[in-house]
Design a protein that fits this description.
The protein is an alpha/beta fold. It has one domain: Cytidine Deaminase, domain 2. The chain contains six helices and five strands. Keywords: Hydrolase, Metal-binding, Zinc.
């Protein structure tokens, strides 16, 4: 990790903070090609009510728009790009990034439950011959602190609990005193 890497990762963390401030899971990312930041994304699942609007997908759409307005082919740009993201991309996002043949991914912290680069799935799971240079867990403490801060507060978009709560069984020969 060099100074430029940290600058781009810091931008991703700033976007993650914005997402968290908007009651979204705090994940942010930046696509960089030849040192130039081309596209940005942050989670917008709750705002859009679309479960696929992860930071990486939002940024890919922005990168696609940039390519269209600059007469570029996204398939030719991505093999030269680095993605800086605060959390290891999930399986959905990682699969897309393998398919699009991105050059490099730098992520802040591993995603132990859904990580699609190393934690849960990897290149072999996608039957990909493409190798992505992966620099992981480069700022895990900061990423985890952001996630903990988000999950410690009440999420207004959290679905209502639908499971039935079992009443405790009464022991025989006991009396209730309410």
């Amino acid at each position: 990790m060099n100074e430029d890497d940290m600058k781009h990762l810091n931008k991703a963390f700033a976007l993650a903070q914005e997402a968290g401030d908007d009651n979204e899971v705090p994940v942010g990312c930046v696509f960089v090609c030849d040192g130039v930041e081309l596209a940005y994304g942050r989670n917008s699942v709750n705002r859009t009510k679309n479960p696929t609007r992860h930071a990486e997908m939002v940024a890919l759409d922005e990168l696609k728009a940039w390519c269209l307005s600059n007469s570029k082919d996204i398939a030719e740009i991505l093999p030269h790009c680095t993605l800086y993201v605060t959390l290891e991309p999930c399986i959905m996002c990682a699969c897309a990034l393998y398919y699009l043949r991105i050059k490099r991914i730098v992520y802040g912290a591993a995603n132990e439950r859904f990580g699609g680069l190393c934690s849960v799935a990897d290149r072999e799971k996608y039957a990909s011959d493409h190798i992505i240079q992966i620099d992981g867990n480069v700022d895990a403490d900061r990423a985890i602190a952001m996630l903990k801060g988000f999950y410690d507060k009440q999420n207004p978009f959290c679905p209502e609990e639908k499971r039935k709560i079992k009443k405790p069984k009464m022991e025989p020969n006991t009396t209730n005193t309410f």
